[in-house]
């Protein structure tokens, strides 16, 4: 197990370095000088030259990269030239919102997807299974911003049950917080459950053909125990991978959903930074999100090992 | 034991057959919608439509009428006409970006799968890095730096789809490169270029094309999301995504302004998915069984 | 067979719909097992013996069509409500599958898989159940049983896993144990140990047992009766000593001849049965074995011999020209 973790950790390093390189060079090589952006209307050649010197923009790009990377390794991701907030401050302030949103969404997606998958697998080929498989396929073609519009229209405009936009911190008022969170999380969950259901369903169908399921039946176990204890765990390996891949989609979805529902999360920070061309924040957030994504995938890999004792003991 | 294998075989073969029958009607409906969509989008300039950009401030959010079949939007522009011109943008961006992904990703995947070795490690590694960025975030970041234009947007989406195409092409090439007809060609002294183009390409093309359709569906959605946020196609051009984004503002007064483009996008994406999935089931019977 | 019949299989037929047509896996089979008795079912792979055992256990694929009747302990298994059947399985009707690599759940510990059976049927508390589990593992010859409870199947060797599977099967003191090729997937050196273990536990617990195997040698010393199956049908049935003394069906003879003999000279080629079993989706008009039978005559191609009590009430076979008769005709 330790060896397994070490090997995966070692692989993280080059990927993270490459991620930082890509982030930096996209931001640096593309047209539009940072100094012009910052100075805006006051961009006289002298001002620009002076600012470039101050910011070190006149130095070769490699030196700037290593300087930037060195700062980051010391925890300095830079400071917004618009708000004066550091990248880390801005991110830590908004991270809990995005986390809450994504966790709620994933939980909702699992709550919808997993039971449906189990029921469909247990009665595969039946009318319910066919209906749900078809619905899941159709739902895969509904992007998050479409379901967001539908949900807002239904629950906020027509029924007036839930607010369409706004946010209250969880610590301040948990009930109000949840009222604001339900629609955004449901929006993301609607995009999540079809994938969860399809993957788990097909894995469950395969698992239910296994000899050990036949033996579990022959042992006279209850159907619920066979499905939930004997079949669910060995079937959930692909589901875990899918969850890892979904995190990327979830982050992208969170950007959209936070913007639509006006939640002050990382996604809104990012979109706001784009609107105001706040490049330092943008660079820092993109790097942090990408690094977080890579690390999340690493954790998913570890979860894999926890679920399957064969991998844990190095048999895979 | 032999009897056990037998039941498994039977299950595996019984399912795709059922699936094929069930998808039959839907598949043709999807093809029908697609032909309709393409015809309307291509013929838009010659159809008797009002201009999609002409504003009529006296007729803002006009209801459905003989003059404006689907009403007008918040600036008095004809909704039907905008929908059709929006289709042009969404389809062109989605298809062109997928073509970029198909060509670059397909070529990289085939070369990596055929030559293996260090080149393969390099290609797969760099794709891993590209995949480390959540796609929408990368697209947002790059548009932010580059500025909004349809050309850049298409290029970015194309690059984003490269890793997926690369994987499909590489997987197909890896299995094919070990098959007899390739080994036979090598033994006959065929050049690498000839083997790649004449022997491998025709066989890799089928799974790639199936994936191409699924890729278009995904990219139409990503383009829609970017435009929805106002960071995709630059105004006054509008795609379905930007129309839905504008329609959101008037959800309380005129929900149809968001719903019409939403329905059009859903049906189109669903059609691409249905056709792509059916093709994939054809080219890969094992996956189709799932 | 003694008076108190525990299991009787009556006219059981299993049909499987396949893309190539209907497959008759089991064809009107009749068998009985008395309480405490051992029946061996012998045949090549694909002869329907596994399907028959799955039919008895009601573990057939959903699409399979079943007819006939299986009476177990006075109840018709085919008609039993699902809940009653569930209480019966594992409790009085237990099974050991062929491959212990696939028949134990890879993600659950040995202890979980043993204890869940005990608690499902016997309403034991946790402490008693785990004490019973340790006793069971000791009984099937697993060293350090306490430690094994916390281990996963892949941490055990194949032979050990099969012992665990047997311990699970024995856990609720079943009346009948069906062992479906219990040693086929194991090393030769382990096979005898497992068979002896089964025989010992059977005697100790006075349970009935069905051993399914392709190896006549396995059933020879360990069973009371033997049924030989070919192409879904029982083609010869007799008390074990009677069968080995005087086998009548050419197929049984061929099966026995295919066994390696210790007293044969080195490098003697094994007389394999030539040809292959018939395609079960294309039933033959005559005797299914006739295309491979050395003694086949015209009648064998056109007419299907019934399983008759020609030899004695207990020795039945399905053949027009049984071996002895044939030999006499040739003389």
Automatic annotation (TrEMBL), chain A:
It is a multi-pass membrane protein. The keyword Cell membrane applies. Its main location: membrane. Keywords: Cell membrane, Membrane, Transmembrane, Transmembrane helix, Transport. One of its GO terms (biological process) is transmembrane transport. GO terms for cellular component: plasma membrane. Pfam families: BPD_transp_1 (PF00528), BPD_transp_1_N (PF19300). Residues 95-304 form the ABC transmembrane type-1 domain. It is found in: Cell membrane. The chain crosses the membrane at residues 9-30, 101-122, 134-156, 176-196, 250-275, 281-307. SUPFAM superfamilies: MetI-like (SSF161098). PROSITE patterns: ABC_TM1. Belongs to the binding-protein-dependent transport system permease family. This is ABC transporter permease. It comes from Bradyrhizobium archetypum.
From TrEMBL, chain B:
GO terms for biological process: transmembrane transport. It is a multi-pass membrane protein. Its main location: membrane. The keyword Transmembrane helix applies. Residues 87-276 form the ABC transmembrane type-1 domain. It is found in: Cell membrane. Keywords: Cell membrane, Membrane, Transmembrane, Transmembrane helix, Transport. GO terms for cellular component: plasma membrane. The chain crosses the membrane at residues 25-47, 89-115, 122-144, 150-169, 204-233, 253-276. InterPro entries: BP-dependent_transpt_permease, MetI-like, MetI-like_sf. It holds the Pfam family BPD_transp_1. Belongs to the binding-protein-dependent transport system permease family. This is ABC transporter permease. It comes from Bradyrhizobium archetypum.
């Amino acid at each position: 197990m330790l060896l397994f973790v070490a090997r995966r950790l070692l692989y993280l390093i080059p990927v993270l370095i490459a991620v930082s390189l890509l982030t930096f060079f996209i931001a640096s090589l593309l047209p539009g000088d940072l100094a012009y952006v910052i100075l805006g209307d006051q961009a006289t050649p002298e001002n620009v030259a002076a600012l470039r010197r101050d910011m070190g923009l006149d130095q070769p790009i490699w030196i700037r990269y290593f300087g930037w990377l060195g700062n980051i390794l010391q925890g300095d991701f830079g400071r917004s030239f618009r708000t004066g907030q550091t990248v880390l401050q801005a991110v830590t302030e908004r991270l809990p919102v995005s986390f809450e949103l994504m966790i709620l969404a994933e939980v909702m997606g699992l709550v919808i997807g997993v039971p449906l998958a189990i029921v469909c697998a247990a009665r595969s080929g039946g009318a319910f299974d066919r209906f749900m498989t078809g619905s899941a396929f159709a739902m895969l073609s509904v992007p998050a911003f479409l379901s967001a519009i539908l949900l807002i229209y239904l629950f906020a405009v027509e029924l007036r049950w839930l607010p369409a936009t706004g946010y209250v911190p969880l610590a301040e008022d948990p009930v109000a917080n949840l009222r604001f969170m339900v629609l955004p999380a449901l929006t993301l969950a609607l995009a999540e459950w079809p994938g969860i259901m399809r993957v788990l369903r097909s894995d469950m169908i395969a698992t239910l053909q296994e000899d050990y399921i036949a033996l579990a039946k022959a042992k006279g176990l209850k159907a619920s125990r066979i499905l939930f204890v004997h079949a669910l765990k060995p079937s959930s390996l692909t589901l875990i991978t899918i969850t890892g891949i979904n995190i990327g989609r979830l982050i992208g979805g969170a950007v959209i959903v936070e913007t639509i529902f006006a939640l002050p999360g990382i996604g809104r920070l990012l979109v706001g930074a784009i609107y105001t061309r706040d490049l330092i924040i943008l660079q820092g957030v993109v790097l942090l999100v990408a690094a977080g994504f890579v690390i999340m995938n690493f954790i998913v890999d570890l979860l894999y090992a926890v679920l399957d004792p064969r991998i844990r003991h190095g048999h895979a | 034991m032999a009897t056990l294998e037998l039941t498994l075989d039977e299950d595996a073969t019984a399912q795709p057959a059922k699936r094929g029958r069930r998808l039959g009607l839907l598949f043709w409906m999807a093809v029908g919608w697609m032909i309709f969509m393409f015809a309307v989008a291509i013929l838009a300039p010659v159809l008797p439509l009002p201009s999609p950009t002409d504003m009529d401030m006296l007729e803002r959010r006009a209801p459905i009428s003989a003059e404006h079949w689907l009403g007008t939007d918040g600036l008095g522009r004809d909704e039907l006409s905008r929908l059709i011109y929006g289709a042009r943008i969404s389809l062109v961006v989605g298809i062109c970006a997928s073509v970029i992904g198909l060509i670059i990703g397909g070529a990289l995947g085939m070369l990596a799968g055929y030559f293996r070795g260090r080149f393969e490690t390099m290609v797969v590694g760099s794709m891993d890095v590209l995949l480390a960025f959540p796609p929408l975030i990368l697209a947002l970041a790059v548009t932010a730096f580059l500025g909004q234009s349809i050309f850049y947007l298409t290029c970015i989406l194309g690059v984003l789809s490269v890793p997926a195409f690369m994987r499909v092409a590489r997987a197909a090439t890896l299995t094919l490169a070990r098959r007899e007809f390739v080994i036979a060609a090598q033994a006959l002294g065929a050049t690498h270029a000839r083997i790649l183009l004449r022997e491998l390409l025709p066989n890799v093309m089928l799974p790639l094309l199936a994936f191409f359709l699924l890729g278009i569906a995904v990219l139409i959605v990503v383009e829609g999301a970017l435009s929805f946020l106002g960071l995709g196609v630059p105004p006054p051009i509008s795609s379905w995504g930007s129309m839905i984004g504008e329609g959101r503002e008037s959800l309380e007064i005129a929900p149809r302004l968001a719903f019409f483009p939403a329905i059009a996008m859903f049906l189109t994406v669903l059609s691409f998915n249905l056709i792509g999935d059916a093709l994939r089931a054809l080219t890969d019977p094992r996956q189709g069984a799932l | 067979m003694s008076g108190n019949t525990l299991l009787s299989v009556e006219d059981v037929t299993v049909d499987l719909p396949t893309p190539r047509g209907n497959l008759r896996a089991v064809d009107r089979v009749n068998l009985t097992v008395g309480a405490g008795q051992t029946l061996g079912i012998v045949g090549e792979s694909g002869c329907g013996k596994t399907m028959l055992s799955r039919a008895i256990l009601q573990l057939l694929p959903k699409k399979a069509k079943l007819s006939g009747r299986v009476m177990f302990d006075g109840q018709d298994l085919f008609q039993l409500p699902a809940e009653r059947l569930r209480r019966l399985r594992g409790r009085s009707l237990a099974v050991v599958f062929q491959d212990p690599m696939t028949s134990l759940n890879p993600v659950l510990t040995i202890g979980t898989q043993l204890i869940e059976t005990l608690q499902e049927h016997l309403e034991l508390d946790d402490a008693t159940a785990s004490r019973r589990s340790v006793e069971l593992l000791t009984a099937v010859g697993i060293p350090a049983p306490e430690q094994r409870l916390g281990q996963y199947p892949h941490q055990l060797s194949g032979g050990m896993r099969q012992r665990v599977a047997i311990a699970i099967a024995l856990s609720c003191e079943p009346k009948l144990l069906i062992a479906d090729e219990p040693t086929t997937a194991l090393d030769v050196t382990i096979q005898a140990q497992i068979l002896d273990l089964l025989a010992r536990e059977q005697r100790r617990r006075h349970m009935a047992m069905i051993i399914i195997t392709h190896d006549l040698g396995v059933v020879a010393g360990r069973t009371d009766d033997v049924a030989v199956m070919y192409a879904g049908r029982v083609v010869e049935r007799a008390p074990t000593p009677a069968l080995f003394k005087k086998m009548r069906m050419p197929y049984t003879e061929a099966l026995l001849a295919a066994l390696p003999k210790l007293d044969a000279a080195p490098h003697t080629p094994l007389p394999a049965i030539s040809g292959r079993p018939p395609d079960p989706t294309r039933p033959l008009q005559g005797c299914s074995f006739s295309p491979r039978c050395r003694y086949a005559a015209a009648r064998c191609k056109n007419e299907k011999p019934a399983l008759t009590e020609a030899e004695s009430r207990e020795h039945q076979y399905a053949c027009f020209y049984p071996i002895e008769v044939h030999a006499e005709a040739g003389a």
